[in-house]
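Same chain as my last thread, 334 residues:
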Amino acid sequence: MPNRKLWKLSSWIIPILTLAAVGGIVAFPPKWEWLGVGENQEISQVTTETIDPQSKQKTVTTIKHEQAKNLWDWFSLLGVPISVAFLGWWLQYLQQKRIEDQAKYEKEIAEEKAKNEKEIAEENQREEVLQAYFDRISALLIDKNVLAISTNLNGGTGFEDGRRSEEKELLDAAAAVVRTRTLSILRRLENDPVRKGSVLLFLSEAEVIRKLNVNLEGANLEGANLGGANLEGAKLIGAKLQGASLIATKLSSINLRFANLKDARLKNANLEGADLRWANLEGAILEGADLRWANLEGAILEGAKLEGAKNITPNQIQQAADYDWDFREKLELP
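reply #2:
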């Protein structure tokens, strides 16, 4: 197969040079005789007659003078095979180009198909992983009846001390399993904010977080949609909640120390008594959020939208500003 680069180079150089040569000859025809493209020259013919004195016979001699083959004659002679050869080369080039274009097109189609199939396979795999998580947590809660046990223990139903101790150990073990499996699934769904949100919503609706006091310290919930969820009293120390949607979410008494809530949407969220010490709330939307008794000591509030926030006091803002000198200067605090 001809070199591809050579094909592409010759595909436009040869036609251009050919057109330039023909145009030059037509516009400025050469005058050199040896080229054979100057003025027309007739073939000369010389006839002589001689009489033999002895035999009295007349002899006629004819001599023709033809112009020798010149460059133009050779061009005329070779023009047909050269044209045929060039036409054959050009058709071969066009065919080769069509084959390459078709191969390229088919390759792109195959790559796109493979990409779509891979995405579908990954999507199905994530869904299977999520369903397996739901099934295992559900089986744990049902088989061990841990939620009912938690209700009884917290309600003080008068269990014997020994039995109460056993039940407490069961609840602690169940909480540890839930924590481990939840953090694991959140890591596997790192780039899937929708399913990460569904994990927390499942635990919220099943009241697992509240009743088992599950510790989800450092959980990756970046971009998750947790709007309307009940996460009261949850332990999310150092959790990654950048860009998460927490609109109208119940976050009272939640522990969000050192959590990253940059650009999180907390509109109308209930943050009553929330522990937000050293949390990053840069650019967070807190319009309509209830911050009654929330601890904002050392919190980063740079760019946070606090307009319309409920029950926030100057003392709370002062707590944050004491550790953020840039924010303090913008608020003109002493």
